[in-house]
Every structure is written in structure tokens, then in C-alpha cells.
Specification:
This protein has helices at 23-35, 40-47, 50-62, 84-95, and strands spanning 9-10, 16-17, 37-39, 66-71, 77-82. By secondary structure, it is of the alpha+beta class. It contains 4 helices and 5 strands, in the order ββαβααββα. The strands form 2 sheets. The chain has a 3-stranded antiparallel beta sheet. Strands 1-2 form a two-stranded antiparallel ribbon. Strand 1 and strand 2 (16-17) form a beta hairpin. Helix 2 crosses helix 3.
């Protein structure tokens, strides 16, 4: 299932590498595609582990697939949504099914 889902990244020597999305990345991307937005606790329920949740969010943000907005009076609620690039990768994943 994961073989068709690759990302473009630049390696340390400047060469292009295409690492595969991990299952946790795919789960978050698909849930965001279905629901539009998720808050941190929603993603934590998907992934279960706090450290993996933080890492997954940061990796997806770094790759440009999700964006974060802080809302609320004290800006403590973290809301995540797909970027245009994130929606594109989800469409590519769904085509492969």
C-alpha cells in the first residue's frame, strides 16, 4: 500500500531522494482530507503516542503537506489542515487504491 506514496526530498549531497510516507503520515493525511481540520488531540487519538504525534505533525509541516493555526483566546488550540500540496498527495494516494 505504501509503495506508491513517495515524497521528494533533497539529500545531503544535493541528490533527490524519494522516501516513502509512513503509515502514521498517511493516516493523518487521510483523516484531514475527510474532516477538513483536526486539532492536536484528534491526531493524538489517531497515532496514540505523544512523541510520535509531535514528530508526525512536524514532519508533515516540514514537507509542506499540512499547516497549523493557533486559535482561541490564548492561542493554545492547535488546528491543522491540508495545504494544496497535501491535497495533491492525498489525491495521488487515492488514485493508487
Amino acid at each position: 500500500m505504501m509503495r506508491g506514496c513517495s515524497l521528494k526530498m533533497i539529500g545531503s549531497e544535493g541528490t533527490e531522494e524519494k522516501p516513502e510516507l509512513r503509515p502514521r503520515h498517511v493516516l493523518v493525511l487521510l483523516k484531514l482530507a475527510k474532516h477538513g481540520t483536526l486539532i492536536f488531540s484528534d491526531i493524538r487519538r489517531i497515532i496514540k503516542d505523544y512523541e510520535y504525534t509531535v514528530a508526525t505533525i512536524e514532519e508533515l509541516k516540514m514537507l509542506g503537506y499540512i499547516e497549523e493555526e493557533r486559535v482561541g483566546e490564548k492561542k493554545r488550540v492547535r488546528v491543522f489542515r491540508l495545504t494544496d500540496e497535501g491535497r495533491k498527495i492525498v489525491r495521488e494516494m487515492l488514485k493508487g487504491l
